[in-house]
Amino acid sequence: MDRMEAKAKKPKKPKKPEELRSGAVVWEGISKLDGRTPIAVVVTWYTRNHGTGDMAQAWMLRTDMHPLDAIYTGADRAVCPESCPMRPSASNVKGRAQCYAATGLTARSLGGIFKVLDRYPRLSPEMVADRLVGRRLRIGAYADPAAVPPDLWPVLISKTRGHTGYTHKIDLAPSLGKILMVSADSAEQALAFQARGYRTYRTRHVDANGVPEPLLRGEIVCPKTPEGGHRKTCADCLLCDGTLGRSKVSIAAIDHSGSARMRLGNRLLPMVA
Description:
- By secondary structure, the chain is α/β, with parallel strands linked by helices.
- The chain has one domain (19-263).
- It contains 8 helices and 9 strands.
- A 9-stranded mixed beta sheet has the order 1-2-3-4-5-6-7-9-8.
- Strand 6 (181-184), helix 6 and strand 7 (200-204) form a beta-alpha-beta unit.
- The longest helix has 12 residues, at 104-115.
- It is globular, with a radius of gyration of 20 Å.
- It starts with a helix and ends in a 10-residue tail after the last helix.
């Protein structure tokens, strides 16, 4: 047998069993945000995101359209609330998306997940919860957790070591405030949500001179951010876990988006609290 024949007869590598693949689809159905679009929740077991650290990641995305096409045409409203000013289609700075999901690692990950969506195993929430025992879960690596039934998330975090998550649609699913931070886009919004008993994660905007809005009473600087000194990853911190978590403070971070830099003429944003 010559070398070419031996190479041709080399046995194929066995496919990885389902539990060893990179993730699973844990829910499929119609978006709770628009009531008509088919979407899915994918949980991936690992990440290369150094900011979040070692966390499993939950993604919500349309099943009928490439996520980047949805992001840039505004069709992402099925998974991201229209009220979110960070959506690229809502940005008034052409070509410079505010949302982290539109660029870099997240955008590449979204494309990869969509490409193999049909090949992910379909697992029940209980099965995924068993897979997440002792792990940490990031609820919303992309999109808003309010896009799916709210009773999904307590099951998924039931056996984890901790989780993080955020929503711009707390009025659609008030119970999510127990396990998620409420996203606030102004000091006024944050104070209003806090008065209703929620913990908030607020974007601190900067003025024309690059001076950020001050912290509110009861807020702390996100330790993952530049102004927080990159002291902790999300996996180490785990404070963004709603009102049932171990912390009562709210969190704030300076707007470091591309559009914020453009408003300042591409000057570096402040790295102070």
